[in-house]
Write a structure and sequence with these properties.
single chain; alpha/beta; Rossmann fold; six-stranded mixed beta sheet; binds adenosine-5'-triphosphate; binds magnesium ion
C-alpha cells in the first residue's frame, strides 16, 4: 500500500505530530479529497463547505485555493512538496538521468524562505525522510529517489527546462514583475508543459485579492463545479482555528474591505483596474523609445524623485502637437540621488527645459539639488490620485502618445482604483507594485495643462 497524503498527516511515524490535531481537520479533508481519497462524514462536511462540491471520486489535476492570511497555506504547500517528492514514485516515467522536480514558486524572497524553512523542517523532522536528503543548498533540496524540491521566487527563469512532479504557486494573487503585466498567467502557461510528462498536479494557494488574474479566473470558472480543477475557498480561521479572533477583528476594524480579503478569504470588490490594455496600446507609439529634441517644439518635464531604495527616480519629457501630448521619453533610475539629479538636469537642458514640476511629496531636497544644476523645480499642485484621474480621460480619448516603455506600460496596467464608501476614489499601484514611471507621465500631463490653461485640450 502506498502512503496517502492523509497518512502523512495522521501517522505519528510520518508528520502526524504536526498535522494530526483537530486544528488541521479542514486541511486534511481538503487534501485527501484533492487526491481522490474517500472521505468520512466529518471530512465530507469540510469538503462541501470548502469546495461547494459533492464527494470526490478521483484525484484532481489542479488545486486552486483562496484562503485568508495565516491560514496554513505555506505550511501545507511544504507538506505537499514533501509528499510528492519523498512519498510518490516517479522513476518509471523518468528518462535515465532525469530528475523529477517539485517547484515552489513564491511571490518574493521572504516568502520563498518561509516555505523553504517549512520544507526543510518537515524533511528533517522525520528520520526516514531526513536520510533521503543528499544535498541541500539555499534554494533546493535533492533527494536520493531522483526527486528535488526547488523553492524560488516566481519568475520565467525558474520555470524552463524542468520535468515537474508538482508545481506549487504560493500567493499567486500577489506575483509582480517589471517585465510582465500578467506574470501569473505567463508563468502558469510556461510550467504546464513541464508538468505534462509526469502528469503532475498544479497547486496554487493564495489569499485572494482583486477580481482578476489566474486565481480569480479559476475560481470564477471552477468553484463548486465538478471538474478536475479543484477550487476551494475559506477564511483564515476556518483553516486555522488557532488564529486568535482578536487578530481578525482588529483587522476588520482597521479596514473592513481589506480584511474581508485578507482574513475572510473573499475577493475584493472595491479594487478595479484603472485602464485597459487596449486603451494603452492605442496610445503607444511603436518607436522610438526616446524621441530626440526637435527645435520646433517647446518641451515640458515632470520629475518623480526617489531617495534610493526600491523606488525609481523618474523623469518624463513631452511636448504638445496639435491636440495631443507626445511623451518623448520617460526614464527611471535607481541609485545615488545626487548623480541621478545631475543626469536628469543635463537631459532637461538638452531639451531646452529650465523649469519642471515634481511630485508634491518629494520634499525640499530635489528642489535644492536641481537648483544647483540650474533647473527650477516646483511641486505639483495636485495629489497622485487626481493626476491619474485626469490622465485617464486623456488616455481614453487618445490625446496622448506614450513611448514604448514596457515598465511604464505595465505600471499603468497594474494601477488600481479603489472605491471607498463615502470617500473619494484612490488610484495607486497594487500591493508590492510600483508606479514611479506612470506617475511621472501622468504628472507631465497635468503640468502641461497648467502651463496652457486656454489651449483647448492641452
Ligand atoms: N490549521 C492549523 N493548525 C495549527 N496551526 C496552524 C494551522 N494553520 C496554520 N498554522 C500555523 O500558523 C502559522 C502560519 O502558517 P502558514 O505560514 O502556513 O500560513 P499562510 O497561510 O501561508 O500565512 P501567510 O498568509 O502569512 O503567508 C504557522 O506557524 C502554522 O504552523
Ligand atoms: Mg504563506
Amino acid at each position: 500500500m502506498s502512503v496517502t497524503i492523509r497518512d502523512t498527516m495522521t501517522d505519528s511515524a510520518l508528520f502526524g505530530n504536526q498535522f494530526s490535531g483537530d486544528s488541521w481537520s479542514a486541511w486534511r479533508a481538503l487534501l485527501a479529497g484533492f487526491y481522490g481519497l474517500e472521505l468520512d462524514e466529518a471530512e465530507q462536511e469540510h469538503w462541501q463547505s470548502l469546495t461547494g462540491r459533492t464527494e470526490p471520486t478521483q484525484p484532481h489535476d489542479e488545486l486552486w485555493l483562496a484562503v485568508g492570511r495565516r491560514g496554513g497555506k505555506s505550511q501545507c504547500a511544504a507538506l505537499l512538496a514533501v509528499y510528492e517528492a519523498a512519498f510518490r514514485d516517479h522513476t518509471d516515467k523518468l528518462s535515465p538521468g532525469e530528475v523529477a522536480t517539485v517547484a515552489v514558486l513564491a511571490a518574493d524572497r521572504k516568502q520563498a524562505r518561509t516555505v523553504f524553512r517549512y520544507v526543510s523542517g518537515l524533511l528533517r523532522s522525520n528520520p526516514m525522510t531526513e536520510q533521503l536528503i543528499i544535498r541541500e543548498d539555499k534554494e533546493a533540496i535533492e533527494l536520493a529517489n531522483r526527486t528535488a524540491i526547488e523553492i524560488t521566487t516566481a519568475s520565467f527563469r525558474a520555470t524552463r527546462g524542468y520535468t515537474f512532479a508538482m508545481v506549487i504557486a504560493d500567493e499567486i494573487a500577489f506575483w509582480r514583475s517589471e517585465d510582465s503585466a500578467n506574470p501569473d498567467s505567463e508563468i502558469i502557461a510556461a510550467v504546464r508543459p513541464g508538468l505534462a510528462t509526469l502528469g503532475g498536479p498544479l497547486v496554487a494557494l493564495s489569499s485572494p485579492y482583486a477580481r482578476r488574474g489566474e486565481l480569480w479566473e479559476h475560481y470564477r470558472k471552477h468553484y463548486a463545479q465538478e471538474s478536475s480543477i479543484l477550487v476551494a475557498q475559506a477564511s483564515s480561521r476556518y483553516m486555522n482555528p488557532g488564529l486568535p479572533e482578536r487578530v481578525v477583528s482588529e483587522a476588520y476594524e482597521r479596514d473592513p474591505e481589506s480584511a474581508k480579503a485578507e482574513y475572510g478569504g473573499e475577493f475584493r470588490t472595491d479594487v478595479e483596474s484603472f485602464v485597459t490594455r487596449e486603451v494603452l496600446e492605442a496610445c503607444t507609439r511603436p518607436n522610438p523609445l526616446e524621441a530626440p529634441r526637435d527645435s520646433d517644439h517647446t518641451y515640458h518635464a515632470f520629475i518623480d524623485p526617489a531617495g534610493g531604495g526600491a523606488d525609481e527616480f523618474c523623469v518624463s519629457i513631452g511636448h504638445v502637437e496639435g491636440n495631443r501630448l507626445a511623451v518623448d521619453l520617460v526614464r527611471g533610475r535607481k541609485g545615488q540621488p545626487a548623480s541621478i539629479t545631475a543626469e536628469f538636469a543635463d537631459l532637461l537642458k538638452e531639451y531646452g527645459i529650465r523649469k519642471a514640476q515634481s511630485d508634491r511629496y518629494g520634499g525640499d531636497w530635489p528642489r535644492d539639488e536641481f537648483h544647483r544644476h540650474g533647473i527650477t523645480v516646483e511641486p505639483a499642485g495636485r495629489a497622485k490620485s487626481e493626476l491619474y484621474g485626469d490622465f485617464l480621460a486623456v488616455l481614453n480619448s487618445e490625446r496622448v502618445e506614450l513611448p514604448p516603455d514596457t515598465v511604464m506600460f505595465n505600471q499603468f496596467l497594474n494601477l488600481e482604483r479603489r472605491t471607498s464608501r463615502g470617500g473619494r476614489d484612490s488610484i495607486d499601484h497594487g500591493p508590492g507594485g510600483h508606479d514611479d514611471r506612470a506617475n511621472a507621465v501622468a504628472g507631465l500631463g497635468a503640468a502641461v495643462r497648467q502651463t496652457r490653461p486656454k489651449a483647448g485640450a492641452w
